[in-house]
Amino acid sequence: MKTNYLSIILVHRGNAMKRLLSCGCLLFLLAACQPVLNADVTRFYSLPPLAAGQSFAIAPDPGQAGDLEFQHYSVLVSDALLSKGFRSAAPQAAAADVVAVMHYGNVGSHTEIYSEPDPLWGRRGGWGWRGYPEINSYTFYSQFVDLALFDGPAWRSGERRMLFQGRALADSGIHDLNVIMPYLVKALLQDFPGANGQTVRVVVPIDDTP
After folding, report:
1. Over the stretch 150-186, which tens digit does the pLDDT of each residue have?
2. Parent domain of 20
3. What is the mean pLDDT of residues 113-126?
4. Other CB atoms closer than 10 Å to residue 101's CB: what's the count?
5. Helix, strand or coil for residue 154?
6. What is the number of H-type helices and E-type strands within the chain?
7. Number of domains in the chain
8. CATH number of the domain encompassing residue 24
9. Do the beta carbons of residue 97 and residue 103 sit within 8 Å?
10. DSSP conformation class of 182
């Protein structure tokens, strides 16, 4: 996925200036650092964890049926599950071993203000500081994806027996969920099924091919 937005450094909660300098860069931050998405990922699953090779189908909620945005994100989740060794079942959940249900969205934003010294070329040919800080602000947008995997036979009998439940939550400087979603899905399913009952920080490099 190509986008001009990917030149922006994606950062998470904490001191705004530290996040912007997380790559150890100062004057040439954007030129020298690869953008990353830092996501907080929480996962729960029943024991034993799901084994690879099972078939899956993604089932929309009533409000998602026919929604084009949902269909687009379903492809992202489907590709991620295939990469973990699952097999795609029929479009419907009629024969799937596992039924996947997902939710996603924006959960708000906040603006942080930070200051930095203003560089000045010194009289002796070296860099100095004027002493007057430059005031800047940065707006962070919080976005998430939730994924639940249910037992297929139980689903078809009307029972919702959950096998896996996970959430990836991240702050970034990009408001467009469509840009962030591929990286949220990648973070959520990294090292699947992950640490049971723990929240971990997952760092996903940003490039043109998530």
Report:
1. 999 999 999 999 999 999 999 988 889 999 999 999 9
2. 4-205
3. 60
4. 19
5. helix
6. 5, 9
7. 1
8. 3.30.160
9. no
10. H
